[in-house]
């Protein structure tokens, strides 16, 4: 997945217009986690069924969430970054 210039940088999935970076703060159980979003809000995020058995989400993981239109304190997780990808996002200034 390297872009070919030899610096080890990967092209990472970036947020769409309706997505925001978030850090998992607490596991709540029942496929829900508490996340701290890059826009400064804490939300309860839902782990969708397509991710439940394939992607393990833990505290301190960096994820992409899609806040709900009708209830801003809730969101759906759409992507989880690996640790190395999260470090790359921090180095490039996308995360605090």
UniProtKB/TrEMBL annotation:
Keywords: Initiation factor, Protein biosynthesis. The keyword Protein biosynthesis applies. Residues 8-82 form the S1-like domain. PROSITE patterns: IF1A, S1_IF1_TYPE. The keyword Protease does not apply. Belongs to the eIF-1A family. Seems to be required for maximal rate of protein biosynthesis. Enhances ribosome dissociation into subunits and stabilizes the binding of the initiator Met-tRNA(I) to 40 S ribosomal subunits. This is Translation initiation factor 1A. It comes from Halorubrum ruber.
């Amino acid at each position: 997945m390297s872009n070919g210039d030899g610096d080890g940088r990967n092209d990472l999935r970036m947020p769409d217009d309706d997505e925001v970076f978030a850090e998992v703060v607490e596991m709540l159980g029942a496929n829900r986690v508490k996340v701290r979003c890059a826009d400064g809000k804490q939300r309860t995020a839902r782990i969708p069924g397509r991710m439940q058995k394939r992607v393990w989400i833990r505290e301190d993981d960096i994820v992409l969430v899609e806040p709900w239109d009708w209830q801003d304190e809730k969101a759906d997780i759409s992507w989880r970054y690996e640790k190395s990808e999260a470090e790359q996002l921090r180095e490039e200034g996308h995360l605090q």
